[in-house]
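Contributing new records

If you add data, match the layout below exactly. Sequence lines come first and carry their own label; structure lines follow with theirs. Keep one chain per record. Anything else will be rejected by the validation script.
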Amino acid sequence: MTVPNETSKAGPYLGNGVTKAFGFGFLVISASHVRVVKTFADGTYSDLVFGADYLVSGAGNPAGGNVTIDVAPATGETITILRDLPFTQETDLENQGAFHAQTIEDALDLSVMRDQILFDRLRNSIHVPDTETADMELPSAVQRANKYMLFDANGEPTYVNSQIDARYYGSASVDPALRPDGSARQASDLYFNTALLRFRVFTGAAWVDALPTANLTLVNYREVSATAKTTFNIAGGYQSSAVFVYLNGVLLDTSEYTASNGTTVVLASACAINDELRCVSFSNFSVADTLARSNNLSDLPSASAALTNLGFTALAKTLAAVLDAASYRAAIGALGVGGVSFGDITGAVLGVVGTSVNDGTILTGTYTPDPLAASPANFRRLLNGGAFTLAAPTRAGPYTMVITLTNGAGAGAVTMSGFTKVSGDALTTTNGHKFFIFITKDEGLVSAVVQALQ
């Protein structure tokens, strides 16, 4: 028997929840030399167990055979069939014993099959082209532990100390004494202080606030080196306390470069031609003229200017002048639905100027005055253009209102409705006559006093 092809794998076959039989086109001497791998929808995989999960037919047939799986793979799952045999040599030729050609051929076949398995594994591994010679041995476990692999100037594997997680510590309430991995702190290390609510950066000697003195800007300098060199001039400069240097996409440890003067980055070892260096830095920024929340605005440079900028009226400024500071703060703090409590203001004379709102011509129906209408005001004006009813206001709360009523050419009789008491002059329908109607409401009682103005 011969091994007529180089194939030692079949599949992957897509599952559909129905199909159980899958073929393979390579020679196996024994059914136990067939390995079946199921890959699940999430990308994980598992070896099926020969005899329990699947059976094999066609062993010894150069054309291959079939695998029958006990449970059909579901949609999204795949089946891969591989030749897999032990890496042992069990053919024992005795001195002067019988020399059977089939025994020798079977041993040679197994040797070729093992070569094909090794060839498949080598082809699936990372390796250099056949045209190159390189030392691809990795550094020792002690050297490469917790490091990143990097290919050096000769294209051979080495390691770097860069650890992104170590450069940024995450959150802490106090300045960390060590990196998260237990190693010593390095310049440009960064963390967020949850007590101060700000980022802090390690200068190499101490932690300082990453707070600015100017607008925050980002420097993102990139250069592909045309020569092997160590020094790079960074256009735009950088902040030495907040700089990150990458070589070919790998974040360098501060021991692998020097960046202290704000304009140049000097590598500890020269880069190769076409290596890419990237320098990323944030400028400092500061928050000026802040006020301490605990001072309750007592640290304002000018309370008077603040009142003007906040839109307080002349009345508020007058209150500030009349009252002592403590009483004034108490008065302003008492502003709310219940009104204003100013305490004992002896000798203070305060005036209030209101606004009169025109409610237009009333021709018929019912007019109910409201101090908090769409255009709120306690002084309201209207023109009598026909017979209508003047109803007592329904807005809750104690208040007074003044209604200025002017008779028009079509003035009609005005009926007062809902008032506890109506007194004063009689309302006429004479064109041009004017009246003040004083309305007072308190404790559910509403009075109206009519004053004729002619």
